[in-house]
Amino acid sequence: MASPPRRIIHFGWALRHRDYRLFFAGQSVSLIGTWIHLTAQAWLVYRLGGSAEWLGIASFVSQAPMFFLPQFGGVVADRYDRRRVLLLTQALSMILALTLGMLTISHSVCLWHVLVISGLLGIINAFDMPARHSFVVELVGGPDLANAIALNSSVFNGARLIGPAVAGIAVAALGEAWCFLVNAVTFLALIAGLLAMRRSPFAARPRTATMWRDMRDGIAFAAGTPPIRILLLLVGTISFFAMPCTVLMPIFAGDVLGGGSARLGILMSAVGFGAMSGALALAARTSIDGYARTIRLVAVGFAGALILFSQSHWLWLAAVALVMIGFCQMTLSAASNTLIQSIVPDRYRGRTMALYTTMFIGMTPFGSLAAGYAASGIGAPATVAVSGLLALVIAALSWRRLRDPLGTEK
Protein backbone atom coordinates (compact mmCIF):
# COMPACT_ATOMS: atom_id res chain seq x y z
CA MET A 1 0.00 0.00 0.00
CA ALA A 2 2.95 2.34 0.59
CA SER A 3 4.41 2.10 -2.92
CA PRO A 4 1.80 4.09 -4.91
CA PRO A 5 1.93 7.17 -2.65
CA ARG A 6 5.71 7.23 -2.89
CA ARG A 7 5.42 7.06 -6.66
CA ILE A 8 2.91 9.91 -6.72
CA ILE A 9 5.12 12.03 -4.44
CA HIS A 10 8.13 11.34 -6.64
CA PHE A 11 6.16 12.36 -9.73
CA GLY A 12 6.05 15.99 -8.61
CA TRP A 13 8.96 16.01 -6.17
CA ALA A 14 10.75 18.90 -7.88
CA LEU A 15 7.73 21.13 -7.18
CA ARG A 16 8.67 21.29 -3.49
CA HIS A 17 11.20 23.98 -4.51
CA ARG A 18 9.47 27.39 -4.45
CA ASP A 19 11.47 28.98 -7.26
CA TYR A 20 10.95 25.93 -9.47
CA ARG A 21 7.19 26.14 -8.83
CA LEU A 22 7.24 29.73 -10.10
CA PHE A 23 9.25 28.68 -13.14
CA PHE A 24 6.93 25.73 -13.78
CA ALA A 25 3.78 27.88 -13.53
CA GLY A 26 5.15 30.66 -15.70
CA GLN A 27 6.25 28.24 -18.40
CA SER A 28 2.87 26.48 -18.31
CA VAL A 29 1.13 29.69 -19.41
CA SER A 30 3.83 31.08 -21.70
CA LEU A 31 4.33 27.88 -23.68
CA ILE A 32 0.61 27.51 -24.39
CA GLY A 33 0.82 30.96 -25.98
CA THR A 34 3.87 29.89 -27.97
CA TRP A 35 2.09 26.88 -29.46
CA ILE A 36 -0.98 28.98 -30.25
CA HIS A 37 1.37 31.37 -32.09
CA LEU A 38 3.19 28.61 -34.00
CA THR A 39 -0.01 26.92 -35.17
CA ALA A 40 -1.56 30.20 -36.32
CA GLN A 41 1.69 31.20 -38.00
CA ALA A 42 1.83 27.94 -39.99
CA TRP A 43 -1.71 28.51 -41.21
CA LEU A 44 -0.95 32.17 -42.06
CA VAL A 45 2.11 31.16 -44.09
CA TYR A 46 0.07 28.50 -45.94
CA ARG A 47 -2.66 31.07 -46.64
CA LEU A 48 -0.24 33.76 -47.85
CA GLY A 49 2.19 31.50 -49.71
CA GLY A 50 -0.10 28.68 -50.79
CA SER A 51 2.62 26.05 -51.27
CA ALA A 52 4.69 23.43 -49.49
CA GLU A 53 7.89 25.31 -50.39
CA TRP A 54 6.85 28.36 -48.34
CA LEU A 55 5.99 26.18 -45.35
CA GLY A 56 9.48 24.70 -45.54
CA ILE A 57 11.15 28.08 -46.04
CA ALA A 58 9.26 29.68 -43.14
CA SER A 59 10.17 26.83 -40.81
CA PHE A 60 13.80 27.01 -41.96
CA VAL A 61 14.02 30.76 -41.32
CA SER A 62 12.61 30.44 -37.80
CA GLN A 63 14.79 27.49 -36.79
CA ALA A 64 18.08 28.01 -38.67
CA PRO A 65 19.45 30.26 -35.88
CA MET A 66 19.05 27.28 -33.55
CA PHE A 67 21.78 25.52 -35.51
CA PHE A 68 24.27 28.38 -35.90
CA LEU A 69 23.90 30.42 -32.68
CA PRO A 70 23.20 28.24 -29.59
CA GLN A 71 26.90 27.85 -28.81
CA PHE A 72 27.11 31.60 -28.29
CA GLY A 73 24.01 31.26 -26.12
CA GLY A 74 25.69 28.47 -24.17
CA VAL A 75 28.73 30.63 -23.41
CA VAL A 76 26.41 33.43 -22.27
CA ALA A 77 24.54 30.96 -20.04
CA ASP A 78 27.82 29.81 -18.46
CA ARG A 79 29.11 33.37 -17.94
CA TYR A 80 26.10 35.47 -16.89
CA ASP A 81 23.07 35.38 -14.60
CA ARG A 82 20.72 32.95 -16.34
CA ARG A 83 17.64 34.55 -14.81
CA ARG A 84 18.52 37.94 -16.33
CA VAL A 85 19.18 36.29 -19.68
CA LEU A 86 15.71 34.72 -19.58
CA LEU A 87 14.06 38.00 -18.59
CA LEU A 88 15.60 39.68 -21.62
CA THR A 89 14.70 36.92 -24.07
CA GLN A 90 11.09 36.78 -22.85
CA ALA A 91 10.64 40.56 -23.12
CA LEU A 92 12.03 40.66 -26.66
CA SER A 93 9.86 37.71 -27.74
CA MET A 94 6.78 39.44 -26.35
CA ILE A 95 7.50 42.55 -28.40
CA LEU A 96 7.88 40.52 -31.62
CA ALA A 97 4.64 38.58 -31.03
CA LEU A 98 2.81 41.85 -30.42
CA THR A 99 4.26 43.31 -33.64
CA LEU A 100 3.09 40.35 -35.74
CA GLY A 101 -0.34 40.54 -34.14
CA MET A 102 -0.71 44.24 -34.94
CA LEU A 103 0.44 43.75 -38.53
CA THR A 104 -2.06 40.94 -39.02
CA ILE A 105 -5.02 42.65 -37.37
CA SER A 106 -4.46 45.73 -39.55
CA HIS A 107 -4.49 43.51 -42.69
CA SER A 108 -1.07 44.81 -43.70
CA VAL A 109 0.88 41.62 -43.01
CA CYS A 110 2.97 40.21 -45.85
CA LEU A 111 4.85 36.96 -46.12
CA TRP A 112 8.19 38.73 -45.65
CA HIS A 113 6.93 40.22 -42.36
CA VAL A 114 6.28 36.71 -41.04
CA LEU A 115 9.69 35.48 -42.21
CA VAL A 116 11.60 38.37 -40.62
CA ILE A 117 9.79 38.11 -37.28
CA SER A 118 10.21 34.32 -37.29
CA GLY A 119 13.93 34.71 -37.91
CA LEU A 120 14.30 37.20 -35.07
CA LEU A 121 12.40 34.90 -32.70
CA GLY A 122 14.75 32.10 -33.74
CA ILE A 123 17.79 34.23 -32.84
CA ILE A 124 16.29 35.01 -29.42
CA ASN A 125 15.52 31.33 -28.81
CA ALA A 126 19.14 30.42 -29.56
CA PHE A 127 20.07 32.32 -26.40
CA ASP A 128 16.92 31.45 -24.44
CA MET A 129 17.03 27.67 -24.62
CA PRO A 130 20.59 26.99 -23.32
CA ALA A 131 19.87 29.35 -20.42
CA ARG A 132 16.47 27.76 -19.80
CA HIS A 133 17.81 24.18 -19.75
CA SER A 134 20.78 24.98 -17.50
CA PHE A 135 18.72 27.27 -15.22
CA VAL A 136 16.74 24.27 -13.97
CA VAL A 137 19.82 22.98 -12.14
CA GLU A 138 20.02 26.25 -10.18
CA LEU A 139 16.37 25.88 -9.12
CA VAL A 140 16.43 22.18 -8.22
CA GLY A 141 19.67 20.24 -8.62
CA GLY A 142 20.69 17.02 -6.89
CA PRO A 143 18.34 14.02 -6.88
CA ASP A 144 15.35 16.13 -8.03
CA LEU A 145 16.98 17.11 -11.33
CA ALA A 146 15.66 14.18 -13.39
CA ASN A 147 12.14 14.82 -12.11
CA ALA A 148 12.41 18.54 -12.91
CA ILE A 149 13.57 17.84 -16.48
CA ALA A 150 10.69 15.40 -17.00
CA LEU A 151 8.21 17.93 -15.59
CA ASN A 152 9.63 20.58 -17.92
CA SER A 153 8.97 18.25 -20.82
CA SER A 154 5.45 17.67 -19.47
CA VAL A 155 4.83 21.43 -19.45
CA PHE A 156 6.16 21.79 -22.97
CA ASN A 157 3.98 19.01 -24.29
CA GLY A 158 0.94 19.94 -22.28
CA ALA A 159 1.18 23.28 -24.06
CA ARG A 160 1.69 21.43 -27.33
CA LEU A 161 -1.55 19.58 -26.64
CA ILE A 162 -3.64 22.60 -25.61
CA GLY A 163 -2.16 25.37 -27.78
CA PRO A 164 -2.82 23.95 -31.27
CA ALA A 165 -6.37 22.94 -30.38
CA VAL A 166 -7.11 26.47 -29.13
CA ALA A 167 -5.40 27.97 -32.18
CA GLY A 168 -7.37 25.81 -34.60
CA ILE A 169 -10.64 27.08 -33.16
CA ALA A 170 -9.42 30.67 -32.78
CA VAL A 171 -8.09 30.91 -36.33
CA ALA A 172 -11.38 29.61 -37.74
CA ALA A 173 -13.48 31.96 -35.58
CA LEU A 174 -11.34 35.10 -35.16
CA GLY A 175 -8.34 34.89 -37.47
CA GLU A 176 -4.61 34.53 -36.87
CA ALA A 177 -4.05 38.00 -35.39
CA TRP A 178 -5.68 37.25 -32.06
CA CYS A 179 -3.50 34.19 -31.61
CA PHE A 180 -0.37 36.32 -31.89
CA LEU A 181 -1.74 38.92 -29.46
CA VAL A 182 -2.68 36.23 -26.92
CA ASN A 183 0.86 34.85 -27.14
CA ALA A 184 2.29 38.31 -26.40
CA VAL A 185 0.23 38.51 -23.20
CA THR A 186 1.26 35.02 -22.00
CA PHE A 187 4.94 36.01 -21.86
CA LEU A 188 4.06 38.11 -18.82
CA ALA A 189 3.44 34.94 -16.77
CA LEU A 190 7.03 33.71 -17.02
CA ILE A 191 8.44 37.23 -16.61
CA ALA A 192 6.43 37.62 -13.39
CA GLY A 193 7.63 34.23 -12.13
CA LEU A 194 11.28 35.07 -12.78
CA LEU A 195 10.93 38.42 -10.99
CA ALA A 196 9.27 36.80 -7.95
CA MET A 197 12.08 34.29 -7.34
CA ARG A 198 14.08 34.50 -4.10
CA ARG A 199 17.58 33.59 -5.10
CA SER A 200 21.01 34.42 -3.81
CA PRO A 201 22.72 37.27 -5.67
CA PHE A 202 24.45 36.10 -8.81
CA ALA A 203 28.16 35.42 -8.35
CA ALA A 204 30.05 36.26 -11.53
CA ARG A 205 32.01 33.30 -12.84
CA PRO A 206 35.75 33.83 -13.44
CA ARG A 207 36.64 34.36 -17.09
CA THR A 208 40.03 33.06 -18.14
CA ALA A 209 39.40 32.80 -21.89
CA THR A 210 37.68 34.57 -24.77
CA MET A 211 34.14 33.67 -25.79
CA TRP A 212 35.45 31.85 -28.88
CA ARG A 213 37.84 29.75 -26.81
CA ASP A 214 35.10 28.93 -24.30
CA MET A 215 32.89 27.84 -27.18
CA ARG A 216 35.57 25.59 -28.69
CA ASP A 217 36.30 24.14 -25.26
CA GLY A 218 32.65 23.20 -24.78
CA ILE A 219 32.45 21.51 -28.19
CA ALA A 220 35.68 19.60 -27.51
CA PHE A 221 34.33 18.37 -24.16
CA ALA A 222 31.10 17.03 -25.69
CA ALA A 223 32.87 15.48 -28.70
CA GLY A 224 35.42 13.81 -26.42
CA THR A 225 32.81 12.27 -24.11
CA PRO A 226 31.42 9.21 -25.98
CA PRO A 227 28.02 8.90 -24.20
CA ILE A 228 27.24 12.60 -24.73
CA ARG A 229 28.45 12.45 -28.33
CA ILE A 230 26.24 9.45 -29.19
CA LEU A 231 23.16 10.88 -27.48
CA LEU A 232 23.56 14.23 -29.25
CA LEU A 233 23.96 12.58 -32.65
CA LEU A 234 20.88 10.41 -32.12
CA VAL A 235 18.76 13.35 -30.98
CA GLY A 236 19.90 15.36 -34.00
CA THR A 237 19.14 12.72 -36.59
CA ILE A 238 15.72 11.91 -35.14
CA SER A 239 14.87 15.63 -35.00
CA PHE A 240 15.85 16.01 -38.66
CA PHE A 241 13.57 13.20 -39.78
CA ALA A 242 10.67 14.32 -37.58
CA MET A 243 10.32 17.63 -39.40
CA PRO A 244 8.67 16.42 -42.64
CA CYS A 245 5.75 15.26 -40.51
CA THR A 246 5.44 18.61 -38.72
CA VAL A 247 6.09 21.07 -41.54
CA LEU A 248 3.77 19.25 -43.95
CA MET A 249 0.93 19.00 -41.42
CA PRO A 250 -1.19 21.71 -43.09
CA ILE A 251 -1.04 19.72 -46.35
CA PHE A 252 -2.11 16.50 -44.62
CA ALA A 253 -4.94 18.36 -42.87
CA GLY A 254 -6.11 20.21 -45.97
CA ASP A 255 -5.38 17.92 -48.93
CA VAL A 256 -4.80 14.35 -47.72
CA LEU A 257 -7.49 14.31 -45.01
CA GLY A 258 -9.79 16.92 -46.57
CA GLY A 259 -10.11 19.35 -43.65
CA GLY A 260 -9.12 22.86 -42.60
CA SER A 261 -7.56 24.74 -39.70
CA ALA A 262 -9.68 22.89 -37.12
CA ARG A 263 -8.41 19.54 -38.40
CA LEU A 264 -4.86 20.90 -38.35
CA GLY A 265 -5.37 21.69 -34.66
CA ILE A 266 -6.52 18.12 -34.02
CA LEU A 267 -3.48 16.62 -35.74
CA MET A 268 -0.98 18.85 -33.94
CA SER A 269 -2.73 18.20 -30.62
CA ALA A 270 -2.39 14.45 -31.25
CA VAL A 271 1.39 14.91 -31.43
CA GLY A 272 1.22 16.96 -28.25
CA PHE A 273 -0.86 14.33 -26.45
CA GLY A 274 1.64 11.61 -27.31
CA ALA A 275 4.59 13.78 -26.34
CA MET A 276 3.00 14.74 -23.04
CA SER A 277 2.28 11.07 -22.30
CA GLY A 278 5.95 10.27 -22.84
CA ALA A 279 7.09 13.11 -20.61
CA LEU A 280 4.67 12.11 -17.83
CA ALA A 281 5.82 8.48 -18.06
CA LEU A 282 9.41 9.63 -17.50
CA ALA A 283 8.35 11.91 -14.63
CA ALA A 284 6.69 8.94 -12.90
CA ARG A 285 9.87 6.84 -13.00
CA THR A 286 11.70 6.62 -9.71
CA SER A 287 15.20 6.36 -11.23
CA ILE A 288 17.02 6.72 -14.53
CA ASP A 289 17.93 3.03 -14.67
CA GLY A 290 17.42 1.65 -18.17
CA TYR A 291 17.12 5.03 -19.89
CA ALA A 292 19.52 3.93 -22.65
CA ARG A 293 17.37 0.88 -23.40
CA THR A 294 14.29 3.10 -23.51
CA ILE A 295 16.00 5.46 -25.95
CA ARG A 296 16.86 2.60 -28.30
CA LEU A 297 13.29 1.28 -28.29
CA VAL A 298 11.56 4.60 -28.88
CA ALA A 299 13.97 5.42 -31.73
CA VAL A 300 12.68 2.35 -33.58
CA GLY A 301 9.09 3.10 -32.58
CA PHE A 302 9.40 6.64 -33.89
CA ALA A 303 10.50 5.44 -37.33
CA GLY A 304 7.64 2.92 -37.54
CA ALA A 305 5.09 5.55 -36.54
CA LEU A 306 6.33 7.93 -39.27
CA ILE A 307 5.78 5.20 -41.88
CA LEU A 308 2.30 4.51 -40.51
CA PHE A 309 1.37 8.20 -40.64
CA SER A 310 2.54 8.49 -44.25
CA GLN A 311 0.00 5.83 -45.22
CA SER A 312 -2.90 7.30 -43.21
CA HIS A 313 -5.92 8.53 -45.17
CA TRP A 314 -8.34 8.50 -42.24
CA LEU A 315 -8.27 11.03 -39.43
CA TRP A 316 -8.37 8.46 -36.63
CA LEU A 317 -5.42 6.46 -38.05
CA ALA A 318 -3.41 9.64 -38.61
CA ALA A 319 -4.13 10.72 -35.04
CA VAL A 320 -2.99 7.35 -33.63
CA ALA A 321 0.25 7.51 -35.62
CA LEU A 322 0.88 11.08 -34.48
CA VAL A 323 0.35 10.13 -30.84
CA MET A 324 3.03 7.44 -31.29
CA ILE A 325 5.36 9.93 -33.02
CA GLY A 326 4.96 12.46 -30.23
CA PHE A 327 5.45 9.84 -27.50
CA CYS A 328 8.61 8.39 -29.03
CA GLN A 329 10.27 11.65 -29.98
CA MET A 330 9.71 13.34 -26.63
CA THR A 331 10.70 10.26 -24.63
CA LEU A 332 13.94 10.09 -26.60
CA SER A 333 14.73 13.79 -26.22
CA ALA A 334 13.80 14.06 -22.52
CA ALA A 335 15.62 10.86 -21.55
CA SER A 336 18.70 12.01 -23.48
CA ASN A 337 18.51 15.42 -21.77
CA THR A 338 18.40 13.75 -18.36
CA LEU A 339 21.35 11.44 -19.08
CA ILE A 340 23.44 14.28 -20.46
CA GLN A 341 22.69 16.58 -17.50
CA SER A 342 23.59 13.71 -15.14
CA ILE A 343 27.04 13.42 -16.74
CA VAL A 344 28.11 16.98 -17.54
CA PRO A 345 30.08 19.07 -15.00
CA ASP A 346 28.39 22.35 -14.12
CA ARG A 347 31.13 24.47 -15.70
CA TYR A 348 30.23 22.94 -19.09
CA ARG A 349 26.48 22.75 -18.56
CA GLY A 350 25.39 25.81 -20.56
CA ARG A 351 27.60 24.95 -23.54
CA THR A 352 26.62 21.28 -23.52
CA MET A 353 22.94 22.16 -23.37
CA ALA A 354 23.59 24.55 -26.25
CA LEU A 355 24.79 21.56 -28.27
CA TYR A 356 21.69 19.66 -27.18
CA THR A 357 19.61 22.61 -28.40
CA THR A 358 21.46 22.54 -31.72
CA MET A 359 20.73 18.85 -32.18
CA PHE A 360 17.16 18.90 -30.87
CA ILE A 361 15.98 22.05 -32.66
CA GLY A 362 18.87 23.25 -34.83
CA MET A 363 18.66 20.22 -37.14
CA THR A 364 14.96 20.78 -37.80
CA PRO A 365 15.28 23.70 -40.26
CA PHE A 366 17.27 21.49 -42.61
CA GLY A 367 14.60 18.81 -42.28
CA SER A 368 11.96 21.48 -42.90
CA LEU A 369 13.62 22.78 -46.03
CA ALA A 370 14.22 19.28 -47.39
CA ALA A 371 10.61 18.32 -46.61
CA GLY A 372 9.15 21.33 -48.42
CA TYR A 373 11.09 20.71 -51.63
CA ALA A 374 10.73 16.91 -51.52
CA ALA A 375 6.97 17.17 -51.04
CA SER A 376 6.72 19.40 -54.10
CA GLY A 377 8.36 16.66 -56.15
CA ILE A 378 7.06 13.37 -54.76
CA GLY A 379 4.17 14.47 -52.55
CA ALA A 380 3.76 14.80 -48.79
CA PRO A 381 2.93 11.12 -47.99
CA ALA A 382 5.96 9.80 -49.91
CA THR A 383 8.24 12.36 -48.25
CA VAL A 384 7.17 11.27 -44.77
CA ALA A 385 7.51 7.57 -45.74
CA VAL A 386 11.10 8.07 -46.92
CA SER A 387 11.88 9.97 -43.72
CA GLY A 388 10.55 7.04 -41.67
CA LEU A 389 12.71 4.54 -43.54
CA LEU A 390 15.85 6.64 -43.08
CA ALA A 391 15.06 7.15 -39.39
CA LEU A 392 14.75 3.37 -39.05
CA VAL A 393 18.23 2.92 -40.52
CA ILE A 394 19.68 5.45 -38.05
CA ALA A 395 17.94 3.73 -35.11
CA ALA A 396 19.34 0.36 -36.19
CA LEU A 397 22.88 1.71 -36.53
CA SER A 398 22.75 3.28 -33.05
CA TRP A 399 21.30 0.19 -31.35
CA ARG A 400 24.61 -1.42 -30.43
CA ARG A 401 26.54 1.78 -29.89
CA LEU A 402 24.23 3.23 -27.24
CA ARG A 403 24.76 1.90 -23.75
CA ASP A 404 23.80 3.38 -20.38
CA PRO A 405 26.55 5.95 -19.61
CA LEU A 406 25.94 5.63 -15.86
CA GLY A 407 26.28 1.85 -15.88
CA THR A 408 22.79 1.20 -14.49
CA GLU A 409 21.48 -0.86 -17.41
CA LYS A 410 21.35 -4.54 -16.75
User: In CATH terms, what is the architecture?
Assistant: Up-down Bundle
Shape estimate: globular
> What string, H for helix and E for strand, traces the elements in order?
HHHHHHHHHHHHHHHHHH
Quaternary: single chain
- What's the rounded overall pLDDT mean? 81
> Which structural class fits the helix and strand makeup?
mainly alpha
**Alpha carbon gyration radius:** 20 Å
CATH superfamily: MFS general substrate transporter like domains
Query: Approximately how much helix is present in the residues?
Result: over 70%
Count the E strands.
0
Amino- and carboxy-terminal Cα gap:
28 Å
Features:
410 residues; mainly alpha; Growth Hormone, Chain: A
Provide a compact summary of the structure.
The chain is mostly helical and 410 residues long.
Describe this structure in words.
The chain is mostly helical and 410 residues long. It has a single domain (10-196, 214-399), classed as Growth Hormone, Chain: A. Helix content is 81%, strand content 0%. It contains 18 helices and no strands. The protein has helices spanning 3-11, 18-49, 52-63, 65-68, 70-79, 82-105, 111-139, 145-173, 176-196, 211-223, 226-247, 249-256, 261-283, 291-310, 315-343, 349-362, 364-378, 380-399. Helix 11 runs parallel beside helix 16 (349-362), helix 12 (249-256) packs across helix 13 (261-283) and helix 15 runs antiparallel to helix 16 (349-362). The protein starts with a helix and ends in an 11-residue tail after the last helix.
